[in-house]
Amino acid sequence: MESRFATLALTAIAPVAWGSGYFVTATFLPPDRPLFGAVIRALPFGLLLLALRPGLLHGSWWWRTAALGLLNFGAFFALVFVAAYRLPGGLAATLTAVSPIVVMLLAWAFAGERPRAGSLAAGVVGAIGVALLVLRGGASLDLIGVLAAFASVAVFSTGFILVKVWQPPVKLLTFTAWQLVLGGLALAPVALLVEGPPPALDMPAIGGYAYIGVVGTVVAYAVWFRGARRLPAAAVSLVGLLNPVAGILIGLAFAGEHLTPTSGLGMALVLGGVLLGQPAVLDRIKAGRRAEPASCADVGAAG
Q1: Which tens digit of pLDDT belongs to each residue from 80-118?
Q2: Does position 1 have pLDDT exceeding 70, yes or no?
Q3: Dihedral (CA of 205, 208, 213, 216) sign
Q4: Which residue has the higher pLDDT, 57 or 83?
Q5: Of residues 36, 60, 241, the one with CA closest to residue 134
Q6: Exposure pattern of 137-153 as b/e (b: 16+ CB <10 Å)?
Q7: Residue (of 290, 272, 226, 161) closest to 4 by Cα position
Q8: pTM of this prediction?
Q9: Residue 248 pLDDT class (50, 70, 90 cuts)
Q10: Which of 32, 168, 199, 212 sits most deeply, having the most CB atoms within 10 A of its CB?
Q11: Statement: residue 280 has pLDDT above 80
Q12: More confident site: 142 or 16
C-alpha cells in the first residue's frame, strides 16, 4: 500500500508544475489572451485524455461533472489568467495564497474535516511567506484583477471539496478528462465573443501551450485530484503553497533572477508552513509532548 508520504510527494508535482507555468506563460505565450489560453489548456488536452481513457458518464453525473468542469477549469483558468494579466505576478500569487485556509474551512463545513489550529496557523504563515517571496514594492491594485484573484480562490476551493466528496462512476483520469472537455466547451464561445478569433501561434507558443496542457494540466490535475481523494484537505491544500516557490526557483534557474534576503525568508516560511502544518506532523508533535511528561516521571521515580 502506498504510504501517506509517497502520496503527498506525488501530489506535490501539481503545484510545482503550476509554478513552472509562470515562466512559460511570460516567455512563450501570446499576451492579453487569457480566455483563449484557458480554452487551449482545457479542451484539446481533455479530448486527448478522454481518447486515452474513454468512459461515459450517466444520470446526474453529467451535470455534476459539468459543474466541476466550470469550477476547476473553465472559470478557474479564466480568472487566473485575468488576475495574472491585470496584476503584478507577486500580488496575484499573494492574494491567491489564502486558498489553503479557505479549503480547510470548506472541508470542515462540507466534508466534516475539522481543521487543526496548527494547520490553520501554518496556512497563515505560508501566506505571509508567499507575500515576502513574491510581493514587490509599489505593486498597483487593479480592482478587476483583485476580484478575479479572490474569485479564483473561491471556485478553486469549492471544486477541490466537491472532487473530494463526490465519488464518480468512472476512473479518476476519465473523470478529469470530462471536466476538462465540458469546462473548455463552456468557455470557448465566451473566448470568441470577448477576444475574437484565435491569434496566430509560432512554434515557441505551440510548445508552451503543449507543456502547460500536458504537464501543467493533465498530469498536474490528475495527481492533485488523486491527493484530494486520499489525503486530508489540510495536507493537500498546504502543499499547494509550493506553487510560487517553484516559480521563483525556475526564475532563478532560467530567467536570471536573484534571490533577495526577504525572498529567502519568505521561501523558508512557505516551506516551514507546508511541513509543520501537515496533520501527520502535528500528530507526531502532539504524541511527543504527551510522552515527555511520562518520561520525566520515570526519571524521577528511578532517582
Answers
A1: 877 877 777 667 777 888 999 999 999 999 999 999 999
A2: no
A3: negative
A4: 57
A5: 241
A6: eeeeebeebbebbbbbb
A7: 226
A8: 0.88
A9: confident
A10: 212
A11: yes
A12: 16
Only one residue has cell 462540507, namely 110
Please give the pLDDT value at position 294. Answer: 54
Please report which residue ranges of the chain form alpha helices under DSSP H: 4-11, 13-28, 34-52, 61-69, 76-86, 89-96, 99-111, 117-134, 143-165, 172-195, 203-213, 220-230, 233-239, 242-254, 261-276, 279-302
Q: How many CA atoms lie within 13 A of 194 on its CB side?
A: 15
Report yes or no: 173 and 217 within 8 Å, Cβ to Cβ: no
Per-residue burial over 88-109, b = 16 or more CB atoms within 10 Å of its CB, e = otherwise: bbbbbbbbbbbbbbbbbbbbbe
Burial category of 242 from C-beta neighbours within 10 Å (exposed 0-12, middle 13-18, buried 19 and up): buried
What lies within 8 Å, CB to CB, of 294 at 6+ separation is: none
Is the alpha carbon torsion for 217, 219, 220, 225 positive or negative? Answer: positive
pLDDT for position 146: 87
Over the range 43-71, which residues count as b (16 or more CB within 10 Å of their CB) and which as e? bbbbebbbeebeeebeeebeebbbbbbbb
pLDDT, tens only, 164-175: 999 899 999 999
Residue 302 binned pLDDT confidence (cut-offs 50, 70, 90): very low
The answer to whether 48 and 157 have CB atoms below 8 angstroms apart is no
The SS3 assignment for 231 reads coil
Number of residues in the chain: 303
Nearest in space to 173 (alpha carbons), one of 229, 230, 231, 222: 222
Instruction: Determine the Cα–Cα distance for residues 147 and 75; give it in Å rounded to an integer.
Output: 13
C-alpha cell recorded at residue 16: 510545482
